[in-house]
Amino acid sequence: MYKKGKLFVISGPSGAGKTSIIRSILSNDTLFSVSYTTRQKRKNEIDGIDYFFVSEKAFLEMIDRNEFLEWERVHESFYGTSKTWVEEKLNLGKNIILDIDVKGAKHIKSIMDANFIFIEPPSMEILATRIKNRNTENSIAIEKRLSVAKEELKEKNFFDFVIKNDVLEESIKKLKNIINNEIFRR
Question: What is the pLDDT averaged over residues 47-60?
């Protein structure tokens, strides 16, 4: 019998550096939960690695079949976490990291035990620069992301831990420490 794994829910504004931090701490025992989305795939993304890219029709059918642990419409696209995948991996003793928005994190907190971590950008100015430098969105979409980011930052006290991503290497160390401490706490 395996010891059940731990769930780590990571949230923060788009462009805060969540993906870079998360990818640096993954291992055989700590897995990233790949979300489903209806948004268009960016040129550097791989289906099944970054997201499972599906049509809106397929996503809505998955909602009807209650296949998501949580789902949300964000920036005109749907995002969702597979309930079956997360439960199977936790039962195998794997630690799971979810990268979801604040609404999704609040929903998860209402239904299951997890550790909640907020990745905060160094400043709104740096966040704006990061999002613009992606060259993936027009100015209207960027302004919408920055507006959402301001609202998400107001929610950071909801989380168990807050990591201000000033220096990537330091943020990675902080996340590793949080995860290791919580894993050994069980």
Answer: 94
Residue 177 burial (CB count, 10 A): 12
Percent of the chain with pLDDT strictly greater than 70 = 98
Please count the CA atoms within 13 angstroms of the CA of 182 that sit on its side-chain side.
23
> What number of other Cβ atoms are within 10 A of residue 160's Cβ?
14
Question: For 78, what's the count of Cα atoms within 13 Å in the CB-facing half-sphere?
Answer: 20
- Residue recorded with tokens 């894993």: 183
Do the Cβ atoms of 4 and 90 come closer than 8 Å? Answer: yes
Chain mean pLDDT for the chain: 91
Counting residues of the chain whose pLDDT is more than 90, the rounded percentage is 71
pLDDT value at position 25? 93
Helix 139-153 / helix 124-134 crossing angle, nearest 10 deg:
140
